[in-house]
Design brief:
36% helix; Rossmann fold; 2 domains; 6-stranded parallel beta sheet; alpha/beta
Length: 299
Amino acid sequence: MAKGVFPEDRPLFAGVLDMACNQVLWDFLADSDLVVAAGFDPVELINPWALAVPVLHVDTTANVDQIYPSGCELVGDVSASLDWLADGWRGEPRWSERDVAAHRERLRTAYYAGRVAGRLNPTDVIDVVRASASPETVVTCDVGSHKLLVGQGWQADRPRSVLMSNGLSAMGLGLPGAIAAQMTLGEVPVVALIGDGGFAMAATELRLAVARQLRLAVVVFVDGSLNRIELKQRALGYPSTATRLDDIDLVALAGSMGCDGVRVTSVAELEKATAGLAGLTGPLLIEARIDPAQYEAQF
């Protein structure tokens, strides 16, 4: 999704397509005069392209598959093409900053829908970790319901600061991806946001993180379910089949591999656990026991 290419703290940032709150973004785009698809890979799409708005395709390759129709294309260097378009553009913006701010407020309302008061919600975890992490932090995200919320809600201010498996959506990326990022980037802080299903697929990689003395934080969203699949089964009227996960003491598991671990069940406990992210001397596992009700409201 190229998160961070356009800093998300800018007033004209409007959100991320095909993550959480998807319909809010599609409704916003439907009101535009023109969509410029700059280097956009349609494999990112969860839903079929359904806009009647004209699309300008800007990429190094032609729009041969026509996942989204484009009557006009610019094939070549994407950055140079965008500079050329910007230099030649005349007129006034269709949307003012006030318009975008109103849209972002609708997006924010949709993003926090379904929160359960007094419980640790998935968006609470994202908010607390983002607030505790330094601005230059690189985050890796595994696949699952939490990914859709991270993709929309984690504020990225720089390119290549959010690493996730989209498109093919391969589970198990979060922890080895964080290890690779920390080994490659050195002093840059790294945080992994992982569902309990994705973590189970690569949990023993924690031993490598300990052996390499990597200063990364691993936050596991624990709800005892392959939630994204379970919700899809439910939507089709099927019973939950092969989606429930037996409970595991992740703190004890981390300790068996020489890794610090802490279990949290509330915002206050998570804030305490993440207060020292800047001073980590080795890997830290945070077992975040979440209420999954917000997933049901979202998806």
